[in-house]
Backbone:
C-alpha cells in the first residue's frame, strides 16, 4: 500500500468548514475534495493519505483518506499565485476520517517522532511518500488513536 503525507498550515489557509466536512463523513462515510500534492507525480487512485497540520503549536495528523485520481495540474489555490498564472499539482480524494484540529485531539507530532523517527514529519510541501515499512504500523496506530479518542469518523474500509 502506497501512502503519502499531505500538509496543512492554517497560517497559509484556514479551513472554514471542517465541522460540515466531519458531518458529511459521519453521514456518507467520506468527504470528497481535492488537495495539493507538492511536486510528486507518483500518487495514483487508491493510495492512502494522511493530512498533517504544521506551522502552528499543535502539530500532528488530523485526517486520512484515499486518492480517487492521479495527479492533475490545476490553477494554484492561492489567489495571489493564481493571479500570477502559477499552477499546482493536486489530487482528488475521499477523506474517511477528519478531526477538528482547533477543538479535538489530533495524532501528535511527538508520537510520530517517537514511533517512526526514520521519517521527516515536517516536510516543506505536501505529497511526501511514507515508506512502506512505516505505512502499515502508522495505519494501525492512527486507527487505535481514533478509537481511543472516541472519534467516530473512520469508516470500515
Residues:
Amino acid at each position: 500500500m502506497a501512502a503519502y503525507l499531505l500538509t496543512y498550515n492554517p497560517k497559509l489557509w484556514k479551513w472554514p468548514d471542517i465541522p460540515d466536512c466531519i458531518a458529511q463523513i459521519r453521514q456518507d462515510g467520506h468527504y470528497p475534495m481535492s488537495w495539493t500534492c507538492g511536486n510528486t507525480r507518483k500518487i495514483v487512485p487508491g493510495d492512502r493519505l494522511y493530512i498533517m497540520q504544521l506551522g502552528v503549536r499543535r502539530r500532528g495528523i488530523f485526517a486520512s483518506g484515499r486518492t480517487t485520481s492521479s495527479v492533475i495540474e490545476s490553477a494554484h489555490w492561492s489567489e495571489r499565485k493564481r493571479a500570477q498564472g502559477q499552477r499546482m499539482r493536486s489530487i482528488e480524494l475521499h477523506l474517511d476520517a477528519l478531526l477538528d484540529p482547533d477543538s479535538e485531539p489530533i495524532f501528535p507530532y511527538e508520537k510520530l517522532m517517537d514511533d517512526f523517527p526514520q521519517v521527516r514529519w515536517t516536510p516543506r510541501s505536501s505529497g511526501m511518500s511514507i515508506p512502506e515499512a512505516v505505512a502499515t504500523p502508522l495505519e494501525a496506530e492512527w486507527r487505535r488513536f481514533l478509537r481511543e479518542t472516541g472519534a467516530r469518523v473512520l469508516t470500515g474500509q
